[in-house]
Amino acid sequence: MKRIVVASKNRNKIREISLALDSMGIEVLSLEQFDVPEAPETGDTFIENVYQKSYFYVKLIGLPVLSDDSGLVIDALEGAPGVYSSHFAGVGASDKDNIKRVITLLNNKKLKESGAAFKCFMMLTFPDLKGYWSQGELKGKVITKPRGAGGFGYDPIFIPVGDLRTLAEYTIDEKNRISHRGRALRKLVGILKGEADV
Fold first, then answer.
1. Is residue 16 domain-resident?
2. Structural domains in the chain (count)
3. Residue ranges for the chain with pLDDT beneath 50
4. 95 is known as an active-site residue
5. Looking at residue 1, what is its pLDDT?
6. What angle do CA 74, 80, 85 make, to 5 degrees?
7. Active site residue: 22, 68, 69, 173, which one?
8. Cα–Cα 20 to 30 A to 116, which of 60, 103, 132, 140?
9. How many CA atoms lie within 13 A of 64 on its CB side?
């Protein structure tokens, strides 16, 4: 496996995955490099969405496809934004818009923080439709005062367990070592190397 297509146009996500796979000599391609329609994401769970995307694109592109569906699950918001994390404030919402909505909802509950977790489900599907999946989780809490200039998504309001910094205050290498996506990716690589159960 020399090349894989990451089922995303999110350049930050592509960069994270590229850095993680670079040592294996795997070239990571983005959906931006292919003229394909957008995959449906009609599932109510992360795993349903990851299956939809992976199979949809592998049939169109004919190369191994790595898809992931991830999001932020906040205790005080009964698991929201969950599978709707990327457009929590509406279709086309920016990261700042989504963060603002989370903060507003927590403020409405008179909360300054809440337990939370980032969750990631990841699937690698080959052109013969054989697929492998994994998951990763990063526990912590969300706060109502964003901090840091790095990362993306909800990173400025998420503090991992055992730290005082938000993910937006981490270097990309630090984040990759502990992130939900990094953990899911390492498990998937382990599966492919036969170091973990399929």
1. yes
2. 1
3. 197-198
4. no
5. 66
6. 105
7. 69
8. 132
9. 15
